Amino acid sequence: MTIFGVRLVGFTADTGVKLLFTLALIAFVIALHRLVRWGMHSLSEVRRAPLTRFWTRQAANIITAVVFVAGLLSIWANSPTRLATFLGLVTAGVAFALQSVVTAIAGYIVILRGGVFRVGDRIVMGGVRGDVIAVGLLHTTIMEMGQPPTVQDAEPAMWITSRQYTGRIVTVTNDQIFSNPVYNYTRDFPFIWDQMTIAVEYGADYQQAEQIILDAARHHVERFVKPGEQDFATLQDRFDVYPSDLVPTTYYHLTPDWLQLTVRFVAPPHGIALIKDGMARDILAAFTAHNIGIGNSPTQQQITQLPPVRIERGAQAAASHDGGH
Question: Would residue 27 count as lying in a domain?
Fold first, then answer.
């Protein structure tokens, strides 16, 4: 084809028509995608259910992608030979130039097909802790949460020391599932075990202290025990999991300074900070009422006895000093 006296090598009338059809296909796919998204979003049950809304979005993406690929092949590959050549060139080019993208897309397929996680799950992925709020073709979007004190040295630095939102929204590429473990707090068992440790002074009524701690734990987490036992039974049917007790339990640990009483309990992954806050308030009030002391830091030593102090007036001190000579 010649345009303004310039001969375009490899560009023929047939190629130009196919190019126009390709542009029309792109416009059609974009319009179709928006139409499908709008139609699914207009359904009331989709708006109310986050999980249904997630899967409808994924279905819209997959439908439009299939339509686009099928249309593109129909336009440019109208014979088996040209189709094989076209697919070979595209595959080789994509595999070489977009290795990370291909891996991310593969990770997306594994996430959907393998059930690694879904929207609403609380996970740790690529070093990011939080709740999944969106899953895309290339990356996963996470509403970040804080880190417990035991992992505060992890990167990136965190200013929230509990499992509460930091306000940051983080995107993680899907290829992270192939190189790093994914920790899911809610996938197969929607509860986690947590614990609280209280230091009790030696000499205090430790049995009373243990009962106070157990009562506080039972008051705040007892409602989760029965549902947790049912879910754990389902988990045991699917996996070879060792039986575990879900009722609050205390453990003793002796130290040179105090007795450590640790209560272990099961609770949902969301709202644990409020549960532990309520337990701490109840324990503190009961300890105060029963005169049970909480262990001090080893650097805060108590003064139990003062040496005798002798105070003399100046004249008497001088006479005593002269008489000594």
Answer: yes
